[in-house]
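Colleagues,

For the teaching module next term, I've prepared a clean inverse folding example: a structure given as tokens, and then the sequence designed for it. I'd like students to try predicting residues themselves before seeing the answer, so please don't circulate the second half yet.
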């Protein structure tokens, strides 16, 4: 019974690790664009995208041509 619990915990850990690593953007995007992660993702909500992040995703991972809205 104990071995079965360990097997389940190992499988859950692997699934969690794979899910997190696949679902999040990479630091290479931040380096490539010379922008902080929060330029494309709201702070603390890294699965969500800002307008810049949506543009980046829709334009083949490029911010070329993106114009940030003017701050009021």
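(Answer key — instructors only)
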């Amino acid at each position: 019974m104990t071995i079965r619990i360990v097997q389940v915990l190992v499988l859950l850990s692997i699934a969690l690790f794979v899910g997190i690593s696949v679902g999040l953007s990479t630091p290479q995007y931040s380096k490539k664009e010379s922008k902080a992660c929060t330029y494309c993702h709201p702070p603390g909500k890294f699965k969500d995208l800002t307008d810049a992040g949506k543009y980046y995703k829709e334009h083949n991972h490029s911010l070329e041509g993106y114009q940030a809205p003017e701050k009021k």
